[in-house]
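User: Structure tokens for this complex, please. No commentary.
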Amino acid sequence: MKYIEEFRDPDLAAGLAHAIRATADPARTYRYMEFCGGHTHAIARYGVEDLLPDNIKMIHGPGCPVCVLPVARVDTAVALATQNDVILCTYADLLRVPGSRYDSLLKAKARGADIRMVYSVTDALNIAADNPDRQVVFFAIGFETTTPPTAVALKLAQARGLKNFTVHCNHVLTPAAMRAILGGHENGQAEKVVLDGFVGPAHVSAVIGTEPYHEFTRDYRKPVVIAGFEPLDVMQSVLQLVRQTNEGRAEVENEYTRAVTPQGNQKAIALMDEVFALRDSFEWRGLGVVPHSALKIRPHLAEFDAENRFAIQVQPGVENKACACGEILRGEKTPTQCKIFGNPCTPENPLGACMVSSEGACAAHWTYGRFRAQGHEAAQ
Amino acid sequence: MSHRKLEGSRPLDLVRGQVDLSHGAGGRAMAQLIQDLFIDSFSNDLLNREHDAAMFSLPLGRVVMSTDTFVVSPIFFPGGDIGSLAVHGTVNDLSMGGGVPKYLTAGFILEEGFPLSDLARVVKSMAQAARDAGVSIVSGDTKVVEKGHGDGIFINTAGVGVVPDGVEICGDRARPGDVVLVSGTLGDHGVAVMSKRENLSFTTEILSDSQSLNDLVAAMLAGVPGIRVLRDPTRGGLAATLNEIAHQSGVGVALNEAAIPIRREVKSACELLGLDPLYVANEGKLIAICAPADAEHLLAIMRGHPKGRDSAIIGTVLKDDRCFVHMKTGLGGTRMVDWMAGEQLPRIC
Amino acid sequence: MCLAIPARIIGMRPDGLANVEVDGVIKEVSLDLVDDVGPGDYVIVHVGYALAKLDEAEAKRTLNLFAEMGKVA
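Assistant:
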């Protein structure tokens, strides 16, 4: 048992496709949001939608931490790197996200800012240890999967008494985002997206457990099926969602039992609670200002908070007016409904965050799926 | 100037010595470096005459010429180094045009302080690669830049070859119905280089596939002279190469994911690093496109050659005005294999 | 950003680290976020940290579920 190839078996996929087709009511449409960017990527990369009947629509959600980072925070990262003599450490995807006025971390790097791509926050800690005379800032983004590692790093920095390491914290919370999607949101946008249920995130749930999702089944009467990352997991979860919809149920079901338990990873949860506090509100690209949706570093670790150590000058963020990332993140528009999709917005020339991250709905559609929009030749 | 020991010179210290500005200045030090290291290693009749330009005749017919510059980092990686890569790269470019490679030039840009021991190692590797490929390095150049203005060593190679009569290989010759073949496993070179940078280790070491392909191409053309397209999937991987060909030929391509040979460690290294193996560079593989009637015969020839043991048929060419490359996934669905994935692996070739 | 991936622990190292193997690739990761794991166990790894231990019995049950569902007419 290796947990990878077995969950990509084409014969099992064909069986599940058959079962989904047999279970779905041809007289209606089913709209399910896969919240998590990793699921968006898996669906596109394996062509899962080809195995689903046409009346099941997968709506791509805002679970891509790069995609939901607002322009103002990208500008802040650029300002941090250019206004101070710091080494700014960031995950790769963030490098090309456009901030205001077409600037980005990659462009700032070309102008001479010391910006380094890291795979892990541990790399940033090592850079700090190797460069004691330089200030090192880790630009932290991510949902609850990525937050515990940042917590570990902050405690390590404290234990080692590092004087040159800080974190710029942009960690965000999944349930809050789901609430914003279902409950309507601020900034005067009245449209609520029509959804029949959620494919729940895999590894966020491995951390937070299944308990937090009961709020949605109870208060909004929408089924949630927590799905593993592999394509068979996604298909099985769609089948379970269709069943729930047909039977008028709204329950939390866990398809990813091999990694997710109801109470989650208690050690990670405790660590996050020890290190981070809730921000009153936080601006999300596409969702506007959402209360209690993001984390900040607690006072006892203030010396490791980049927002404390550095005074950062930014002008208000300027979003590209034609960019429909907001509506796409809320599931109200598909990528092809954005006026600048493909022209000029492409992965090589991204004008919005959804096109930069490989987990973003626009990038996934452009890279893997755009041949479908125009119809395609039958594969030989 | 004849090939004799320069009077009054100390021998080159290839163990502890370093490149310094005098090695690029045109004087004795440079002459000594050229004679005692480059000419000594690359030795052949044309080069040994030490003319500024090598003079030779080529058979009547079409000549192919190609150039490539190598900036790979790190310069020594599992399975190869910048020197052998520089030879293989240009030999392969000429071969992909259907040419029999004959002569190469080599230009070096060296950074002040670059260890002569590393330079010697690179040059010896180039010499061996050239011998293995049956080509001669007949002319060269050396420049030295100040410390901090060049990352150790950059190498440019250019080459000429001759295309035999009856061979017509060009990127615009793919036709609907043609078959797409690959000569072996994909992604090895990129992962080998990345693994050194990212401190990954493997249970079985992933080696770069860097090698010359002119002998494989010769065997293929001898058996199937009507091959339509040959190309080596270097930077940008299989995806970039097939998209180029699709656009040049005005066709589409349908791939079968299950048929594409990729080593399991390369697959999992790519998953760990967030890469797609279809976009990862190869330095010892080729894509061939041929008429359907020739496909099985060509596959047998490739598999029968030591450099093509893992060859496979991976797809077909279709009529498609949009020139899309798409792929039936292992799961049974379909996805596009687009031109650029957006991942950038700097300094991979 | 890298997805999380199942990896097998092949050896423990000091300071809460371990060597894990993913189908032939060996990497060092942190076990600071999990308890009670050791060589032979499979864990989910994300950005260099193990996040959860994989339950083999549940995995087999899930695979059986896929097969069962597929037989539904």
